[in-house]
Design goal:
There is one protein chain. By secondary structure, this protein is an alpha/beta fold. The chain is built from 13 helices and 12 strands. A hairpin with a 7-residue loop joins strand 6 and strand 7. The chain has a 6-stranded mixed beta sheet. Strands 6-7-8-9-10-11 form a 6-stranded mixed beta sheet, with helices on one face.
């Protein structure tokens, strides 16, 4: 038993460190292996994905414990019984949570546009105007439809919308009265120094920018090169890999208050994979919006994995998440991580949906920011020490 508990604790701590050190990369943590079951994911609302991973690794080692205890029937009964209690409790809690039907706000109706423009065509300078027109054409709706907001994905168009009023004018012409466009775009500032951000904007039907958010959790080597590596690459004569304009980081999670809309927290691309770091704790939003460009990864598993991690953030925070992806998978996700509507990968289409409501009561995880997981690790580490101590010859 001490060996197993030590392995579980060390594995979980290694995952936590991977998710935090050097800006972190908590991709495909052990807890996500329950992605096939909405029921089994629900305990993420209590101790987050790291806590669920802790339980998952322990359960994965139960067969080893059963084999190890073949000569000791009481040990087998205790181990098997403990595993059954854990799984039973997870099922009971999950079903209880999912017994609540999805409710929607009557005052917010969203239109999510998925143009399915390939990565190659997206950044082709000769096609950027055609891509822009495609977004405009697919976004136009009948005023009677009552759309509140049109949503485009990360860097949907490669125009600097904040400094190009002519593009915003065309957007305003597309919008009906009272509608806003919520879109990703690259933002550029030339003075006093040249800077560029991976940004998001809310634009109204008068072509005014009402809100801006800059991505703060950038992808190392994808959106910027860390200074330590930039210097090393230059020193090694690999300066060509260290050159180029990196994105600048925003100030952190930020809640926006668009006109006529409930407060929203925006997560650009992989910002959504960081547990406990997706909302502004001082100005909590009513919903989250994840805009992303998963076209980089074609038809492989990444878009599906990204969607799963987005669903778990909804469960942890008890907030609905709207997901807009250029080539998919765009989706409407309720506060229990259930996919209400979606567009398949590499398909063109539009989702029209009311906005799901947030949970009436905040989840334990959203209130304690992962402390339940920390306490769980400390308690089991202490138990492990006592077991080792009393087993000494």
């Amino acid at each position: 038993m001490p060996v197993v508990l030590s392995f579980v604790i060390l594995w979980t701590l290694a995952e936590w460190l991977r998710g935090h050190l050097f800006t972190g990369f908590p991709w495909n943590l052990a807890g996500y292996s329950w992605g096939f079951s909405d029921v089994m994911l629900q305990t993420s609302a209590i101790w987050g994905i790291y806590g669920l991973g802790f339980i998952t690794i322990f359960l994965a080692l139960v067969p080893y414990l059963l084999i190890y205890g073949l000569a000791r029937p009481k040990f087998i009964y205790t181990t098997f019984g403990t595993a059954l209690v854990i799984i039973g409790a997870m099922i009971f809690y999950g079903r209880a949570q999912l017994s609540t039907p999805t409710k929607f706000r009557n005052d917010v109706k969203l239109e999510i546009v998925q143009t399915n423009i390939s990565q190659k065509d997206k950044w082709d300078p000769t096609k950027k105007s055609g891509n822009f027109v495609k977004y405009l054409e697919m976004s136009k709706s009948d005023p009677a439809a009552g759309i509140t907001a049109v949503i485009w994905p990360e860097t949907a168009v490669i125009y600097f919308l904040d400094t190009e009023p002519s593009r915003r004018y065309l957007i305003a012409q597309m919008l009906n009265k009272g509608e806003v466009l919520m879109t990703g775009f690259p933002r550029l500032r030339r003075q006093p120094t040249l800077k560029v951000w991976n940004s998001f904007a809310v634009i109204d039907n008068q072509s005014r920018i009402r809100n801006i958010y800059d991505k703060h959790h950038l992808v190392p080597f994808g959106e910027y090169t860390p200074d330590i590596f930039r210097k090393s690459l230059s020193f090694l004569g690999l300066g060509m890999f260290a050159q180029g304009l990196s994105y600048s980081a925003g100030t952190g999670p930020k809640t926006l208050h668009p006109p006529g809309m409930p407060p929203v927290g925006v997560l650009i691309c992989y910002e959504v994979i960081f547990p406990g770091a997706v909302v502004d704790r001082h100005d909590r939003p009513d919903w989250l919006l994840n805009i992303t460009n998963d076209a980089w990864y074609g038809s492989f598993s990444e878009p599906y994995q990204h969607l799963l991690q987005t669903r778990v953030r909804a469960i942890e925070e008890g907030l609905p998440i709207i997901r807009s992806a250029g080539t998919g998978i765009s989706a409407v996700i309720d506060a229990y991580g259930r996919v209400i509507k979606s567009l398949k990968l590499n398909r063109q289409g539009v989702i029209i949906s009311r906005l799901p409501v947030k949970k009436a009561v905040r989840t334990p995880y959203s209130r304690n920011s992962g402390w339940i997981f920390v306490v769980l690790v400390i308690l089991l580490s202490t138990l492990n020490i006592f077991i080792v101590w009393f087993q000494r010859p």
